[in-house]
Design brief:
Largest sheet: 9 strands, mixed
Number of helices: 7
Distance between the termini: 28 Å
Strand content: 15-25%
Strand order of the largest sheet: 5-4-3-2-6-1-7-9-8
């Protein structure tokens, strides 16, 4: 069994001042990012504990609006930052009502002003970009607010956008010992074809057959 302390040592950050975008994803052995429509169903005990450890090491958890709708995200600590171009979110959503700390919503100036005003009552709304969300500006804004260590938990379209913008600094990938088949997507979607070189910084496995891979620039 891998203990929580072993996970903390394996994923420790040497430098907490330099902005970093760390991504945490789980994938089946045949590359599926979801099972029965959710990523959580692919995981196991160690994977869930690793997610908590990575959240402990982060300043903010970054998620797309689609992932919020699929997974809920109530009561997550540390703070949550939700990326949404169209702001198809409700102030009554569990991510706001059950938040451990006031969430942030990252959008662009092109989003509906009425939706920005409605969400401002339950979250800090950050406008980063004019026609679309400019992710480099978002990273700078979060770092300027004292949150340089960013943990992205999805979804695949947000990962793809971060990859396009060359903002993916580290990938923590759990390989689940399952074959899923079907039409489930990959951990990245919507990205242009790129070739980003990463180094393998760590490999661990648990008694259930899950493999935990840490890649970094």
């Amino acid at each position: 069994m891998i203990t929580d302390d072993e996970l903390r040592r394996a994923y420790a950050l040497d430098d907490r001042q330099t902005p970093r975008v760390r991504l945490n994803f789980v994938s089946s052995a045949d590359g599926a990012v979801t099972l029965r429509g959710r990523s959580g169903t692919l995981g196991g005990d160690t994977d869930r504990r690793l997610m908590q450890v990575l959240r402990e090491l982060a300043d903010v958890v970054l998620i797309g609006a689609g992932t919020v709708r699929a997974e809920g995200y109530a009561g997550v600590a540390p703070r949550v930052a939700i990326v949404s171009a169209r702001l198809e979110l409700s102030p009554d959503d569990a991510v706001f009502a059950g938040a451990a700390a006031r969430p942030l919503v990252v959008t662009s100036a092109a989003s509906p002003p009425s939706r920005r005003a409605a969400l401002a009552g339950v979250a800090d709304v950050l406008v980063c970009g004019q026609e679309s969300v400019e992710l480099p500006a978002m990273v700078r804004e979060l770092a300027g607010r004292g949150m340089p260590q960013i943990l992205c938990e999805g979804g695949p379209h947000l990962f793809g956008s971060l990859l396009d913008a060359d903002l993916a600094d580290e990938l923590c990938l759990t390989a689940s010992p399952r074959l899923v088949g079907g039409v489930a997507g990959r951990i990245t979607q919507g990205a242009a074809e790129v070739d980003r070189g990463f180094a393998l910084r760590g490999v661990r496995h648990d008694d259930e057959g899950f493999v935990f891979l840490r890649y970094a620039r």
